[in-house]
Amino acid sequence: MEHIFDRLIDELDTSVFVLLALLAFAIWAAFKLGGWKQIFTQHASRIDKIEDIGSKVIELKTKVDLIYQYTNPNTPVRAASPINLTPVGEQIIKKSMLRIFLRVTALS
Description:
- By secondary structure, this protein is mostly helical.
- The chain contains four helices and no strands.
């Protein structure tokens, strides 16, 4: 082993330093790329969790909207099948003559 070091010391020139610098740069680049890959892997798992949260928020928003439509006293139509008219809806039909239209469509 000492013979190798003695030989390197005897023949030191710029090419050896350039090769050592390239080796050091390659090791540093591999280390940095590994760190970046780990960071992006962690971000990917976090993004998946955020997408799951987004679908849950949409589901909750839909449920809250249905609850609000069912419990709102001023809505003209309740969320049910067939259409159930509230007193507000009845007043709207009396004022606008839509009762005839609703009867015709219900019969056909």
